[in-house]
């Protein structure tokens, strides 16, 4: 099914929410609650011949719940493409032998400064000098995410030349970008390599969903809490006192691009931001920060998943 990102606006009154597509204001929907209005707008987009799986990006952002407002000082968003890229690295095949798996992973190792973990194939070191070579990148979107050879492992981010051109010289100076290799006269994309930024943290007292690798120690977690759209957090104390409009979050090789609300409002809707979506990044006061959360191993979590009442 076709996916597409639609830049939308909204208003709220005593009767509920009204949502509409900015480029087609007559394409709108109303509802007593936001979820009701959203469902109706997505259906209206489908009925008008649009994407079957529409992604709605709002400017200005939707109103925040009391819980969300607690973690919105300052207000920061992670941005990235709502489509995947694919490299030409060898992918896994059914019924591979141990020797075949090892040979394939050696082809992945060269993209990182240290070999990837053999248990879950995650990389724990920065990227090497070897550039990505793509079989596919989105033709209409200005950003994409993907992996080297093995779906679901270390996530890398790409941004188009058009998006990079929207940034100021100072913003570009503070980003580590590398062109990817593509055949022919295809659009140029850049991989976001760094620099390292504030690391992701956990929140004390908030139910966490995640796992850790028992072999390499890799940890992955997020939050899926009622009345909270925020999935990831950084510590307020890790943010610089003078916050740039565009900066990075995370530790290589998984680097995310972050923007302040004011900077994103200046970018969104321009040519060069097609298909880019935002996700609010939570900012945690120091007394609630957990640097290394306690997580089950992946095997422990998988074992509990057979019991629905214990599933994350």
Note the main attributes of this structure:
alpha+beta, 31% strand, 7-stranded mixed sheet, disordered C terminus, globular, single chain
Explain what this protein looks like in three dimensions.
With 312 residues, this protein is of the alpha+beta class. It folds into three domains: 3-63; 76-81 and 198-310, no CATH class; 86-194, no CATH class. The protein has seven helices and 19 strands. The chain has helices spanning 34-47, 66-70, 98-109, 161-166, 169-173, 261-267, 298-304; strands at 3-13, 16-21, 24-31, 53-58, 76-81, 86-87, 134-136, 143-146, 156-160, 176-179, 189-194, 200-203, 209-212, 219-222, 232-235, 246-249, 256-260, 276-284, 289-290. The strands form five sheets. A seven-stranded mixed β-sheet has the order 16-17-5-18-15-12-19. The protein has a four-stranded mixed β-sheet with strand order 3-2-1-4, covered by helices on one side. The chain has a four-stranded antiparallel β-sheet with strand order 8-9-11-10. A hairpin with a 2-residue loop joins strand 2 (16-21) and strand 3 (24-31). Residues 306-312 have low confidence and may be disordered.
